[in-house]
């Protein structure tokens, strides 16, 4: 049984209609990242930030898992390999495809977080600045999403899984956002085989032992079919 750790990024959800994180002009859905994806932006204008994520939450809810999401779930369900999916994405398409061993290192749109006390709860479809925290009643509800300047979730668990893996596979990532961009170097240092499945060569493609390039809905199911054959 091989232990396989996957890292998935925006490229795996793009074919489900989820837009990638930032456009070439540095804007995210026509907003400055500093305004909608930082603690400082939330402090300045929480109403804008909540409205922005309400729209993203609605878009994610309307999207459907694609063939790449389903292929990873099928590989896990097959049971012949120990699979862990670490995703940078904040949508829930992996879960809806059937993946169970999953870490959202950047949080998820389906979660809410109290900026005052740290309590977490399921996010409603529409979050409002007047929403009280269920634990402390503060009006400080924010999306449970890791913003710029914040530490990604469950990093020690991710590092441990990487070092213990037999294979690390990166899917749909740009290779320029840390700490995830450093996973391939850490895996190689630990003697782990590495593979890139991406639309095009990433910034770190030279660090991988092998690579297959093309749309995620083609290269991921094809590779998984080979693993299951």
From TrEMBL:
A GO molecular-function descriptor: NAD+ binding
Boundaries of every Deacetylase sirtuin-type domain copy: 1-229
Keyword Oxidoreductase belongs to the record: no
Cofactor note: Binds 1 zinc ion per subunit.
Cofactor(s) for this UniProt protein: Zn(2+)
One Pfam family matching this protein: SIR2
Active-site positions on this chain: 106 (proton acceptor)
Record PROSITE patterns: SIRTUIN
Cellular compartments annotated: Cytoplasm
Coiled-coil regions listed: none
Binding site for NAD(+): 9-28, 88-91, 172-174, 198-200, 216
E.C. number: 2.3.1.286
Binding site for substrate: 53, 56
Family: Belongs to the sirtuin family. Class III subfamily.
Biological function: NAD-dependent lysine deacetylase and desuccinylase that specifically removes acetyl and succinyl groups on target proteins. Modulates the activities of several proteins which are inactive in their acylated form.
Name of the molecule in the record: NAD-dependent protein deacylase
Organism: Paenirhodobacter ferrireducens
């Amino acid at each position: 049984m091989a232990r396989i750790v996957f890292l998935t990024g925006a490229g795996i959800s793009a074919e489900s209609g989820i837009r990638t994180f930032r456009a070439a002009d540095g804007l995210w859905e026509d907003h400055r990242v500093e305004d909608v994806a930082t603690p400082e932006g939330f402090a300045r204008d929480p109403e804008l930030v909540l409205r922005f994520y309400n729209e993203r939450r609605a878009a994610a809810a309307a999207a459907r898992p694609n063939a790449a999401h389903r292929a990873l779930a099928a590989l896990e369900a097959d049971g012949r390999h120990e699979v862990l999916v670490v995703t940078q994405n904040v949508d829930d398409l992996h879960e809806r495809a059937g993946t169970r061993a999953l870490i959202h290192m950047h949080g998820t749109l389906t979660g809410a977080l109290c900026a005052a006390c740290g309590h977490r709860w399921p996010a409603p479809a529409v979050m409002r600045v007047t929403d009280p925290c269920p634990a402390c009643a503060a009006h400080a509800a924010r999306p449970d999403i890791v913003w710029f300047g914040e530490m990604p979730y469950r990093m020690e668990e991710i590092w441990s899984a990487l070092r213990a893996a037999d294979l690390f596979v990166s899917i749909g990532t740009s290779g320029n956002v840390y700490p995830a961009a450093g996973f391939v170097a850490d895996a190689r240092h630990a003697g782990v085989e590495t593979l890139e499945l991406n639309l095009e060569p990433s910034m770190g493609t030279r660090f991988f032992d092998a690579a297959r390039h093309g749309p995620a809905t083609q290269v991921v199911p094809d590779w998984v079919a080979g693993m299951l054959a």
